[in-house]
């Protein structure tokens, strides 16, 4: 069944803490906005598990661009055998490229490809940044290095002196905050300013319609948005998918205030993990995150 409504999407991924990214509703949204007219959806499933694949030209990939899908994984306990049978049914000469795999997911894929008689290679190609959360925000600050702890507190105090109490509001459906989020993005310098095309706006708007997604907006004392995080809230983790801020307020370090505030909210909500997702930007590690390596597996049928 090549459908995102396949009930096997309810199975757990072989790697843990992957947020929304292996879910059918998320992948359906990515596919809707990015698939080309000749791209083939190939969701392989049976009682053992599910693997969400696509065939693009002469290449077999997991569904969705690596720029939009931060984590990938087969779902279910029997997916190595499922992969072996599925890949074995395909003609010779196809290239397999599977990126953004946590180690356990990469190992399962490698096992399946080996069972299909293919020689595969695996290498680290990217990383995510994951912060383990303590029981309180003060404890989190104490875990930071002395310099970063001082800077975070200083920037938060300066913000409060200029704009009042650090306050957040959450929008779980497209509305005024979403429109401001898009506007701030488009006002950003460099590549970030060109990211939020009309196609990307439509994609993010549809994501916001899905369960768990929301914009957490840092607002000033007049309720105007200063910065916003676009993220996914699971029962024990927060996944920060995208963020932006009002460039007019850039001198008040809105990025630091936003991220530290989101961490505070996540702790209050009982989360044990704050996931910055893919990317090795230094600020993530200055704020306490640890690297989570991601792997790419390649082979030829």
Describe this entry's structure for a reader.
The protein is 36% helix and 28% strand. An 11-stranded mixed sheet has the order 1-2-3-4-11-5-10-9-8-7-6, sandwiched between helices. The chain contains 10 helices and 11 strands. β9 (237-245), α9 and β10 form a beta-alpha-beta unit. The chain is an alpha+beta fold and 301 residues long. The chain has helices at 24-34, 79-88, 103-115, 137-143, 146-163, 176-186, 190-195, 198-208, 254-268, 282-286, and strands at 40-46, 49-56, 59-62, 95-101, 121-132, 167-171, 213-219, 225-233, 237-245, 273-278, 290-300. The model has no long low-confidence stretch (mean pLDDT 95). It folds into 2 domains: 7-127 and 293-300; 134-271, 3-Layer(aba) Sandwich (Aminopeptidase).
Write the layout of secondary structure elements.
Elements: H1 24-34, E1 40-46, E2 49-56, E3 59-62, H2 79-88, E4 95-101, H3 103-115, E5 121-132, H4 137-143, H5 146-163, E6 167-171, H6 176-186, H7 190-195, H8 198-208, E7 213-219, E8 225-233, E9 237-245, H9 254-268, E10 273-278, H10 282-286, E11 290-300
Parallel strand pairs: 3-4, 9-10
Antiparallel strand pairs: 1-2, 2-3, 4-11, 5-10, 5-11, 6-7, 7-8, 8-9
- Principal-axes geometry comes out as elongated
Total strand segments: 11
CATH fold-level assignment of the largest domain:
Aminopeptidase
- What is the gyration radius calculated from CA atoms? 21 Å
Rounded to the nearest angstrom, the distance between the terminal CA atoms is 22 Å
Helical fraction: 25-40%
Average pLDDT over all residues: 95
